[in-house]
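User: Just a sanity check before I run the rest of the batch. Below are the C-alpha cells for the first item. I only need the designed sequence back.
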C-alpha cells in the first residue's frame, strides 16, 4: 500500500482524504466532462455549476436587451449579465477544473497503489519503511504504529476508526474502493461493525471538520465552517442531531404505525389462509355429500328401470305359454280333420259296395266334427299400455334434485345525486341474482359508526332527512341480502350537503397579498418575502374538504413554493412578514399544520419532516388542485393531488382552526369546493347494525354461508336426503 515519493505528510493525507471541489449551491462535485457540472465564474467572482446558474437564471433572471441579468445566489447582491442568455458565454473557472483533474488523477493513482499493494507486502503509506500494522478507511491509508500514533492523535483524526491489518489479511474485514477511498463493507465482529457505523461523518468541503449542521435551504449536510463562513452562510441551518432526533421520532411513529398495519395485514393473511383451508375441507365434504345424494338418486332410477323390465319379461313369457298351448291344440284338431277328409274322399271314389257299407259311419263322424266348436281366437291380447312421466316434467324435476346457495355479490356503482339543497338521492344498480330479498343502505359521518337508514327491495333512496348537516361529509354504502346472509358492502361514496363557502379574509392577510375573484383568489407579485393568508371561517368539528388551485406556481423545484394547511384560530399576526405555516422561527408556525408543495415536506409546530411524500415524485405543478380533507373528529388531515389521495399527513390536528396558505414570489392560489369530495379512508370504527341480525341464519354457523342440497321428489327416489352445510364467509363479504 506504500508508494515511494517525496511528498510531505499533510500533502499526502490531503490528496487522499480531501474531496474534489463542489458547487456551493447544489453540493455536486464539479466535472469538466459534463456540461451541467462545469464550474463557471460570475461577475462577483463566485463560481457555481452551469446547472445551478441555469436554474436561477430561469427563476429570478430578467431580460435586458436580449441579455439576462441575475443576482448571485450567494447573497453578495452583485449582478451578473449573461450575454444572449447563453450560459456557455460565461467564463469557465479553469483553476478549479485543473484542480478537479489533479484530484481525480491523484485518487486513481492512490487507488491503483493500494490495490496493487494488497497482493504483496503492506508498508506504511507515510514513512514507507515500516510494515503497516493498521489501516484507516477514512483516510484510505495504511500506517505503522509509530505514524498512526503521531497522526491520529491530532484534531480531526481522533474520530477515525483504525482497523488492524491482520483482520484484512485474515479475511475478517472486507474492503472496497469507492472514488479512490478505502472503505469498510462488512465485519465478522459485530462490535467493530457497530463502531464503524457510528463513526462521525466528515465535511466534504473541510475534510478535518465534523458534519454538525443541516442546511435546510440546500438540503445539504455541512460543518461549522460551511455554516458560519463559507457557501452556506446566511442559509437556514439546524443542528444535525436535532434534525436526526426529530427524524428518529418521526420514523419511530411511522414504524409503530407500520407495525400496527403489518399486524392487521398479517391477521388478514392468517384469516385468508384459514379460510382457504376451511374452504378446501368444506369443498371435499360437499363433493362427497353431493355425489352420495345423486348416486342414491341414480340407484333408485336404475332399480325402477329393472323392475319395469322384469314385469315386462314375465308378462310376455305368460302370453307365449298360453299361445303355444292353444296353437298345439288347434294343430291336433286340424290333423284329425285332414285324415277324416282324406278317408271320405277315398270312400267316395270307391265302389258302390264301399259307399253303402262305410258311408253311414263316415257321415256320422263328419257331422260330429262339423258340429264341434274350437276356440280359434288367441287367448291373450297383443296390446300393452306403457305409461311414463313426461320428459319435460322429469327434466324440470331433476333441476330441483339439489341446489347450492351463496351470499349475494358486491353492489357496484353507488351514486349520490343532488338536485337542490334539499333533494339528495342515493341509487345503485340491481344485482342480477333473483334471490335478492332486500338492500341495506348505511351512512356514516365524521368517523361515526355506520348506521342503517334504509332496508328494502328498492334500488334508490331519498336521503334528504339523513344528510341534514351542512359542510359535513357523509359516506354511503350498500349491501345486498338474500336467504343466506349479507353480501360485501360497496365502496363508500361521499357527499357534502352544502358547498363550503369560506373565502380569503381581508383581515387575515399580509398587506402585500391581494384578494380577488370575489374572495376566492389570493395572489402576490414579485416579492421574495413569505406571507400568509387565512380564511373567514373557523372549523371546530366535523369533516371538511376544500381544494386550492395553483393558478400561478412556476416550474417545480426543491423549494417550498407554497405551504397549504390550517392555523390555530387564535392566531392574529397575519400582517407580519416571513410567516410560514409550521416553521419554528415564525409566530404562525407554533400552532399550525401544513404541506410544502415544492418539497412535499410536512411542517407542524415548528418541526420539519423531510421527504414526507417523496421529494422527487410528489411535487405539485402549476394548475394542480391541492385537496385538503380535515376530519376533526379523528384529528387527521389528508391531502390529495388532482383528486388522487396522498395519504394521511397529520394525525394530531385539534380545532378550532382556520384554513390558510403561506407563499412567496409570483403566485396565485384559488379556493374551490367540489360538491362530491374524493373518497377518504373509511372511518376507523365500524360496527354492524343490530337490524341486520334477523337476516342471518340462527344456527351456530350464522356468520357463514349455507350450502343447501334440497330434498328430491319421492317419485324419483326412495331415500330422500337433505344436506345442509356451511361455508366460511369470504374476506370481502359480511359486515366490515
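Assistant: Here's the designed sequence for the first item:
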Amino acid at each position: 500500500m506504500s508508494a515511494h515519493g517525496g511528498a510531505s505528510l499533510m500533502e499526502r493525507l490531503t490528496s487522499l482524504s480531501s474531496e474534489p471541489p463542489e458547487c456551493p449551491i447544489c453540493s455536486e462535485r464539479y466535472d469538466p466532462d459534463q456540461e451541467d457540472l462545469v464550474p463557471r465564474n460570475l461577475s462577483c467572482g463566485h463560481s457555481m455549476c452551469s446547472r445551478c446558474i441555469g436554474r436561477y437564471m430561469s427563476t429570478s433572471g430578467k431580460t435586458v436587451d436580449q441579455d439576462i441579468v441575475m443576482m448571485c445566489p450567494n447573497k453578495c447582491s452583485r449582478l451578473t449579465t449573461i450575454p444572449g442568455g447563453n450560459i456557455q458565454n460565461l467564463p469557465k473557472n479553469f483553476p478549479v477544473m485543473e484542480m478537479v483533474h489533479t484530484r481525480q488523477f491523484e485518487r486513481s493513482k492512490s487507488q491503483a497503489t493500494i490495490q496493487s499493494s494488497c497482493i504483496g507486502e503492506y508498508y506504511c503509506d507515510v514513512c514507507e519503511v515500516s510494515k503497516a500494522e493498521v489501516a484507516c478507511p477514512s483516510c484510505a491509508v495504511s500506517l505503522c504504529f509509530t505514524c498512526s500514533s503521531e497522526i491520529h492523535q491530532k484534531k480531526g483524526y481522533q474520530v477515525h476508526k483504525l482497523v488492524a491489518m491482520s483482520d484484512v489479511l485474515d479475511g475478517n474485514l472486507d474492503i472496497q474502493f469507492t472514488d479512490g477511498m478505502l472503505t469498510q463493507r462488512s465485519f465478522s465482529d459485530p462490535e467493530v461493525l457497530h463502531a464503524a457505523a457510528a463513526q462521525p461523518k466528515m465535511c466534504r468541503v473541510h475534510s478535518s471538520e465534523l458534519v454538525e449542521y443541516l442546511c435546510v435551504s440546500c438540503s445539504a449536510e455541512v460543518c461549522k465552517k460551511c455554516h458560519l463562513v463559507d457557501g452556506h452562510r446566511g442559509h437556514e441551518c439546524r443542528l444535525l442531531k436535532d434534525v436526526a432526533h426529530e427524524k428518529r421520532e418521526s420514523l419511530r411513529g411511522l414504524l409503530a404505525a407500520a407495525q400496527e398495519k403489518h399486524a392487521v395485514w398479517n391477521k388478514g393473511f392468517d384469516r385468508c389462509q384459514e379460510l382457504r383451508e376451511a374452504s378446501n375441507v368444506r369443498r371435499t365434504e360437499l363433493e362427497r355429500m353431493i355425489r352420495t345424494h345423486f348416486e342414491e338418486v341414480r340407484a333408485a332410477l336404475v332399480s325402477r328401470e329393472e323392475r319395469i323390465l322384469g314385469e315386462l319379461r314375465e308378462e310376455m313369457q305368460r302370453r307365449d305359454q298360453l299361445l303355444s298351448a292353444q296353437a298345439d291344440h288347434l294343430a291336433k284338431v286340424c290333423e284329425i280333420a285332414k285324415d277324416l277328409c282324406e278317408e271320405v274322399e277315398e270312400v267316395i271314389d270307391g265302389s258302390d259296395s264301399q259307399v253303402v257299407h262305410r258311408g253311414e259311419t263316415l257321415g256320422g263322424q263328419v257331422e260330429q266334427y262339423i258340429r264341434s266348436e274350437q276356440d280359434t281366437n288367441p287367448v291373450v291380447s297383443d296390446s300393452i299400455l306403457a305409461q311414463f312421466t313426461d320428459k319435460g316434467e322429469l327434466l324440470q324435476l331433476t333441476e330441483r334434485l339439489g341446489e347450492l346457495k351463496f351470499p349475494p355479490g358486491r353492489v357496484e356503482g353507488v351514486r349520490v345525486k343532488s338536485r337542490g339543497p334539499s333533494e339528495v338521492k342515493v341509487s345503485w344498480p340491481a344485482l342480477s341474482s333473483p334471490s335478492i330479498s332486500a338492500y341495506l343502505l348505511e351512512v356514516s359521518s365524521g368517523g361515526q359508526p355506520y348506521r342503517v337508514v334504509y332496508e328494502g327491495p328498492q334500488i334508490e333512496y331519498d336521503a334528504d332527512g339523513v344528510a341534514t348537516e351542512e359542510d359535513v361529509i357523509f359516506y354511503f354504502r350498500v349491501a345486498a341480502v338474500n336467504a343466506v346472509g349479507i353480501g360485501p358492502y360497496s365502496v363508500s361514496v361521499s357527499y357534502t350537503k352544502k358547498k363550503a363557502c369560506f373565502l380569503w379574509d381581508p383581515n387575515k392577510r399580509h398587506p402585500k397579498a391581494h384578494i380577488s375573484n370575489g374572495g376566492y383568489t389570493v395572489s402576490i407579485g414579485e416579492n421574495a418575502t413569505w406571507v400568509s393568508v387565512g380564511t373567514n371561517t373557523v372549523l371546530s368539528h366535523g369533516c371538511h374538504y376544500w381544494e386550492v388551485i395553483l393558478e400561478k406556481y412556476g416550474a417545480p423545484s426543491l423549494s417550498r413554493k407554497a405551504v397549504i394547511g390550517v392555523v390555530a384560530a387564535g392566531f392574529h399576526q397575519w400582517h407580519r412578514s416571513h410567516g410560514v405555516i409550521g416553521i419554528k422561527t415564525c409566530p404562525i408556525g407554533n400552532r399550525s399544520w401544513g404541506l410544502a408543495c415544492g418539497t412535499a415536506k410536512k411542517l407542524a409546530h415548528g418541526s420539519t419532516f423531510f421527504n414526507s411524500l417523496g421529494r422527487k415524485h410528489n411535487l405539485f405543478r402549476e394548475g394542480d388542485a391541492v385537496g385538503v380533507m380535515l376530519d376533526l373528529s379523528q384529528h387527521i388531515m389528508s391531502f390529495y393531488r388532482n383528486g388522487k389521495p396522498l395519504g394521511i399527513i397529520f394525525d394530531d390536528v385539534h380545532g378550532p382552526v382556520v384554513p390558510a396558505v403561506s407563499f412567496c414570489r409570483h403566485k396565485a392560489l384559488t379556493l374551490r369546493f367540489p360538491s362530491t369530495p374524493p373518497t377518504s379512508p373509511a372511518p376507523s370504527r365500524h360496527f354492524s347494525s343490530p337490524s341486520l341480525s334477523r337476516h342471518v341464519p340462527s344456527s351456530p354457523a350464522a356468520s357463514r354461508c349455507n350450502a343447501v342440497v334440497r330434498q328430491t321428489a319421492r317419485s324419483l327416489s326412495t331415500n330422500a336426503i337433505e344436506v345442509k352445510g356451511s361455508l366460511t364467509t369470504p374476506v370481502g363479504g359480511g359486515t366490515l
